Amino acid sequence: MGHATDAYCDEEKELCGSYDVNAYPAVRLFKKNGGKDVEVTRYRGRRTKRAIRSFVTKHEIPTVTHIEPENVGAFKATDDIVIMAYLRPDQEALLEVFRTVASKHHADYVFGYVTDMPTADAEGLAMPSIVCYKNTDGDNKVMNGHFSEADVGKFLETATRTVIGEFNERNMDVYMAADKLAAYIFAATDNEANALRWELTPVAKKFDKYVTFGVADAVEYAPMAESFGLSERKFPALAVHAPMNDNVFIYRQGKRIMASVVEAMLTTILQAKAGSGQVFGSDAPEMEGEVTQDMRKGHDEL
User: Fold this and answer.
1) Do domains 47-159 and 164-280 have the same CATH topology?
2) Which InterPro entries does UniProt cross-reference here (predicted)?
3) Each residue's pLDDT tens digit, 85-142
């Protein structure tokens, strides 16, 4: 989840200039576009193995994939967010609407469709339906019934949002809102982050009006974690900050971060029954393993 220090193109200036590279690490995707033409796409996402794999996946598969019943399970796990339409074979007009929307958002999400009724029945879905499968937190969303292009666009806008966001310098003001608590999940790897998203998304949804949840890169934002009183040798970790009075509450490091314990922690804080610096989760089970500073060397995966 970390970022390497950028270096400028002092060498190979001509090559860098050819592909609009001003600093590196940098990623460009080269794709044959019929004949000898090569399409070059600039990657602007996070420099992690998972994010780059997702970027490549979206460019190597069709805009919309027709999925056979035996491949549905694998396709749903293709990317972090997968959009699937369940349509009867005679619903060609709806398929064209789905294709139109997919062509506009193919760089953002993976799209597929199923025309097998038993498959839809097994998922508990009517035909037509569209499902947004969210593999980072399991908070899947469903839209039932006939749809227009505008309907699908609005569905994507709302269904793809994650209740536990990604904390970074660009959205820092969201977590500093004076009328809400900010719950920071410090994770050193994507696997840690996603495991805790699955665990804590129900809690984040329940407290959405009062608490803003976010995952912070434990390597990049180590000084921030330290300012909250967290040890950089014990991740994942969780801290709650109250911007209105600068109070901080932490979850006992080395203990498993559990939804039930976090819910009790937030309830106590919101009821003004906790003091700044109070530590919660002491009775939670021990974490099965911990990430140390040495284990995280070379954390940036580029």
Assistant:
1) yes
2) Thioredoxin-like_sf
3) 999 999 999 999 999 999 999 888 999 999 999 999 999 999 999 999 999 899 999 9
Structure tokens at 148: 């227009």
Nearest Cα to Cα of residue 194 among 279, 94, 57, 81: 81
Residue ranges per domain, the chain? 47-159, 164-280
DSSP 192: H
Q: What is the CATH number of domain 47-159?
A: 3.40.30.10
Q: What angle do CA 21, 27, 28 make, to 5 degrees?
A: 80
Give the separation between CA 83 and CA 75, rounded to whole angstroms: 10
Strand extents, DSSP E, the chain: 7-8, 23-24, 28-32, 38-42, 65-66, 81-86, 110-114, 129-134, 141-144, 164-166, 181-187, 211-217, 237-242, 247-251, 279-280
This model's pTM is above 0.70: yes
Whole-number Å distance between alpha carbons of 225 and 218: 7
Instruction: Domain 164-280: give its CATH architecture.
Output: 3-Layer(aba) Sandwich (3.40)
- Omega within 30 of 0 (cis) for the link into 236: yes
CA distance 236 to 240: 14
Q: Which two tokens stand for residue 220?
A: 């990049």
Q: Under 8 Å CB-to-CB from 261, ≥6 apart: which residues?
A: 251, 280, 281, 283, 284
